[in-house]
Amino acid sequence: MLVSREYPVSPGELLDVLTDQAFLDARNENFGGKAPSTIERSSESVVVVTPRQLPLDQVPAAFK
Q1: 47: buried, middle or exposed (CB in 10 Å: 19+, 13-18, 0-12)?
Q2: What are the pLDDT tens digits along the chain (64 aa)?
Q3: What is the Cα–Cα distance from 64 to 4, expressed in whole angstroms?
Q4: Which pTM does this prediction carry?
Q5: Which residues contact 17 (CB under 8 A, 6 or more apart)?
Q6: Which residues are 38's β-sheet partners?
């Protein structure tokens, strides 16, 4: 499956939004985050880690 999106901003601006701590905290609150997201940046990559906990009654049967 291929999903494509276009945004009316530069890639750098989009990266700034997607790695903004306030944005990540708000997203975390909406989707069951258990701890603040951490952001690790290097010259070649950005890694965002968001710990989450999914209630067992919402886990697809194939993963139980």
Answers
A1: exposed
A2: 899 999 999 999 999 999 999 999 999 888 877 888 999 999 999 999 988 877 788 788 887 7
A3: 31
A4: 0.66
A5: 9, 23
A6: 49
